[in-house]
Write a structure and sequence with these properties.
single chain, about 25% helix, alpha/beta, 7-stranded mixed beta sheet
Length: about 325
């Protein structure tokens, strides 16, 4: 048992009294020894296992657009829906969640982000966040493009679109998609805001190591693509399976956790074939809900994993619980 003698008690009382006086007479700046973390407080990657496959979500940053850009004539309705679900409505933010699939033999990156300061200055974090996750660009064996929009393709090259950043990677894309974006007449077919010449420059850089596939191709063990055209002519999504576990990666079939699910019939501003994109979105959501399959999304809030449930004639997004151990 701890015994306190009279001298010890007097010393303790004296110290406490002195501290009280000091506190009353001294102004101490708030948080003097606890500076705020700022931007570095945010997570850069998220890792979990799917059977024997290791999945790591690696953020490339964020994009932001006016609701009019994303949903056109439905912008006002979209803002109301976003506000009712406690999401920012002006501008509307989109995450960029690249997915690194470690099969044990291959490191396969699904999409490559936007690149540093190429479109908006909130992107281009991929290489730094890969390093935080324990990987370097040279480690990546394969990059699969769901499609060739700027925020999925441009991250393969430096700021001048002059040299590749992934020295060992094989590039894989839909032959339909590459044919569309490689067309010399492309600048007259898409909005100038999409900077089609930059996309063509990146495809030219990738071409010596570019493998063209048809939808439904298995690109690595357990990693199979499937046709989800509409957003772009050759858009593909990805099915990943290991043992009894499986997952669907959306690409840009859905882009917002409220609008894309509660109103999948609303056209999305970057969809090139709106009727086909709507049909594809409905089919994807129907499949995910019926099969109760885990879904990984490119643009939903980080890390972007969850499930789709049917709600009347529409759907609802249920984010998956955070897994603290891989």
């Amino acid at each position: 048992m701890l015994m306190l003698d009279r001298r010890m008690l007097l010393r303790a009382g004296s110290a406490a009294g002195g501290a009280a006086v000091l506190a009353a007479t001294t102004t101490v700046p708030a948080l003097a020894r606890a500076p705020q973390g700022g931007e570095k407080a945010q997570p850069a990657f998220y890792r979990f296992r799917l059977g024997t496959i290791e999945i790591t979500v690696v953020s490339d940053g964020t994009l932001a657009f006016p609701a009019e850009t994303l949903w056109g004539d439905r912008a006002e309705d979209a803002r109301g829906l976003l506000t009712s679900t406690f999401q920012p409505s002006s501008p509307v933010g989109l995450q960029i969640n690249t997915i690194l699939v470690n099969t044990g033999d291959k490191l396969v990156l699904i999409d490559a982000g936007c690149g540093v300061d190429k479109f908006q200055n909130t992107t281009g974090r991929l290489l730094g966040h890969l390093a935080s996750a324990g990987y370097a660009a040279v480690d990546i064996d394969m990059i699969v493009f769901t499609h060739c929009h700027f925020d999925h393709l441009w991250g393969i090259s430096d700021g001048k679109n002059a040299s590749l950043l992934f020295p060992s990677a094989e590039f894989v894309a839909s032959e339909t998609e590459v044919a569309f974006w490689s067309d010399p007449e492309l600048p007259g077919k898409v909005s100038a805001k999409q900077q089609p010449l930059v996309t063509q420059a990146n495809l030219k850089l990738a071409s010596p190591r570019l493998r063209l596939i048809k939808a439904a191709a298995e690109v690595a063990p357990g990693v199979t693509t499937f046709d989800t055209a509409g957003h772009t002519p050759g858009h593909i999504s990805v099915h990943i399976s290991s043992g009894s576990e499986e997952m669907l990666l959306t690409g840009d079939v859905v882009v917002n956790s409220a609008v894309s699910f509660l109103h999948p019939e609303w056209p999305f501003g970057f969809d090139m074939d709106e009727p086909l994109a709507k049909k594809t979105r409905m089919a994807f959501l129907g499949r995910a809900a019926a099969d109760k399959t885990l879904v990984g999304s490119y643009h939903l809030p980080f890390p972007g994993f969850g499930h789709v449930v049917r709600e009347g004639s529409a759907y609802r997004w249920l984010p998956a619980d955070w897994r603290w151990t891989a």
